[in-house]
Every structure is written in structure tokens, then in C-alpha cells.
Amino acid sequence: MRTPVLLLAFLAILVHADPLILPLNKFLSFGTSLVKNVEPGADLYLASKDSDEYLKNIQITTGGNSITLDSLNGFNADSSPICLRIIDTMTVSTTNNDTISSWLGGNLYVTTKTQADDPNFSVYVIKTQHNITMKSGTSVILNTKLEPFVYIDQPYKTSYVSGIQQSKDAVVDFKWGIPSYNWQSVDTNNTFFKNPMDLKNDTYRSYV
Ligand SMILES: *[C@@H]1O[C@H](CO)[C@@H](O)[C@H](O)[C@H]1NC(C)=O
Ligand SMILES: *[C@@H]1O[C@H](CO)[C@@H](O)[C@H](O)[C@H]1NC(C)=O
Ligand SMILES: *[C@@H]1O[C@H](CO)[C@@H](O)[C@H](O)[C@H]1NC(C)=O
Ligand SMILES: *[C@@H]1O[C@H](CO)[C@@H](O)[C@H](O)[C@H]1NC(C)=O
Ligand SMILES: *[C@@H]1O[C@H](CO)[C@@H](O)[C@H](O)[C@H]1NC(C)=O
Question: How far does the signal peptide extend, from start to end residue (predicted)?
Fold first, then answer.
């Protein structure tokens, strides 16, 4: 009788990890969550106006080390947000009870490794007011919750851009969403404003 032979095909699959936005209110107290599709070498940012009293109960583990989120809730001397380099995997656990967790308004943002390594890729977290200086490249602007909450119909999160100073040959594109893993090579059609403006034919007609 012939012995059955099990053939294993090892497939090399090229994968990419897309950047992630992870709302803090999705992490509940049932245990530790392994965040999927996080690349080693990526950067983790926190955009949050939640109290450190609750952020310190949320733990991130990578490369065998753990930190609590209150330590990412601040800025470096150059006003860039503090971030954490992902070493291998990323896990999140919380000791906040689920009532507290469900009230958290902040988000985690995970870049790709390429973005983390790119000196022309920067991230800002807007809590009050920021001066943003860009030479070239991509800046991601993360909103935090508007406070104080005054009107029932006010937007939950918003940013207000003013005082743009731009040289004549510079082009600034404003896009919604976060840059995808291939943000430099695809047109994701998410530009909502451009300066200089690039009007589609017929968008504007001058009747003179
Ligand atoms: C959740 O935690 C908060 C703050 O520690 C506490 O005031 C509240 O009673 C807790 N709620 C539940 C349902 O355990
Ligand atoms: C960053 O931008 C500068 C200025 O445009 C450019 O010379 C440089 O090659 C860029 N670096 C990368 C890694 O893209
Ligand atoms: C931004 O720059 C302007 C003009 O230089 C300055 O008046 C303002 O205080 C700065 N704001 C912050 C938040 O650094
Ligand atoms: C962007 O729009 C163009 C023209 O409408 C289309 O050909 C292209 O597939 C779109 N790209 C994406 C990523 O949706
Ligand atoms: C732009 O629109 C005008 C008026 O509708 C038309 O005459 C002209 O050919 C259009 N130009 C292009 C480049 O499509």
C-alpha cells in the first residue's frame, strides 16, 4: 500500500499593510487584542483629548515592551506628536470598564513602515493650535474632539486652516482620509481643495 504524501505548497504572497485608524472606544475589557496588519517599523500615534486618567489604563505592547497611552498623549520639543515605533506585533489591552471605554473619543493611527521611514512624511495632532511647516511631502493632520461641546449640531471633530503661506511654485493639495500604503503612486480622488486651484472645465465661467 502506498503511503499518502502530503504536499505543502509554500506560497510567497506579497502583502502590504494599509495604515489604520483605530477608535479607542472599540477596545473593550475582554482581553488583549492583537492588532492585525501592522507592519514592524510602523509608527503609532495617538490623537485624543481623553483624560490621562483613562489613557493610562490602556496598554500597548510591542517588541516585548509595554507602554500606557498617556505617554503618547503629548508633544516633543519640536511640537511633533510623541509616537511609538512598532517593533514586531502590536497588542492593546485596557483595564477601563466598558462604560468608560465607550465614551473615549480618541483614535490610534498606525502608519506603514515606508511612511515612518520617509523624512517627508509628517504627522500632526491638533489639540489647540499648531503652526505647520512643510517643505515638501505629506503631512497628516489628526483632529481631536472639539471642546468644549457647545452646540448639539456642532461637528464632533474639525480643524480650521488659516494663514497659508505658500511660494508661487508650490502646490498644496488638501485631501480627506489618511494616506494609503501606496499614497505616492495612486490618485485616490480624495482631494477637496487645491492651491493653486485646478478648476474642472465648466466649474467656473466668467460672463464678461
Ligand atoms: C466604570 O469605571 C468608572 C471609573 O472608574 C466608575 O466610576 C464606574 O462606576 C464604573 N462602571 C461600571 C459599570 O463598573
Ligand atoms: C524629501 O523632499 C526633498 C525636497 O523635495 C527631496 O529632495 C528628497 O529627495 C525627499 N526625500 C525622500 C526620501 O523622498
Ligand atoms: C504660529 O506662528 C505665529 C506667527 O509666527 C505666532 O504668532 C503664533 O504664536 C504661533 N502659534 C503657535 C501655536 O505656535
Ligand atoms: C480616480 O478618478 C479617475 C477619473 O474619474 C478614475 O479613472 C480612477 O480610477 C479613480 N481612482 C481611484 C483610486 O478611485
Ligand atoms: C470648456 O468649456 C467650453 C464651454 O463649455 C468649451 O467651449 C471648451 O471647448 C471646453 N474646453 C475644454 C478643454 O474642454
Answer: 1-17
pLDDT band at 7 (very low <50, low <70, confident <90, very high): very low
Q: Is the pLDDT of residue 204 over 80?
A: no
Instruction: Give the span between the Cα atoms of 52 and 70, in whole angstroms.
Output: 5
Query: What pLDDT, in 10s, does the model give residues 116-168?
Result: 999 999 999 998 888 888 878 999 999 887 665 666 666 667 778 888 888 88
- Residue ID of nearest Cα to ligand 1 atom 7: 100
Neighbour count for residue 63 (Cβ, 10 Å): 13
Rounded to two decimals, the pTM is 0.82
Candidates 114, 121, 136, 183: which one to mutate for ligand 2, based on the most atoms within 8 Å of Cβ?
136
Structural domains of the chain, count: 1
Indicate whether 21 pLDDT > 60.
yes
Residue 14 is assigned to a structural domain of this protein: no
Q: Is the dihedral of CA 70, 74, 80, 81 positive or negative?
A: positive
Identify the domain containing residue 160 by its residue range. Answer: 20-206
Ligand 4 site: residues with CB under 6 angstroms? 186-189
On whether the CB atoms of residues 196 and 171 are closer than 8 A, the answer is: yes
Domain membership flag for residue 9: no
Structural domain includes residue 117: yes
Compute the average pLDDT of residues 33-60: 96
Q: What residues contact residue 120 under an 8 Å CB cut-off, 6+ apart?
A: 135, 136, 137, 138
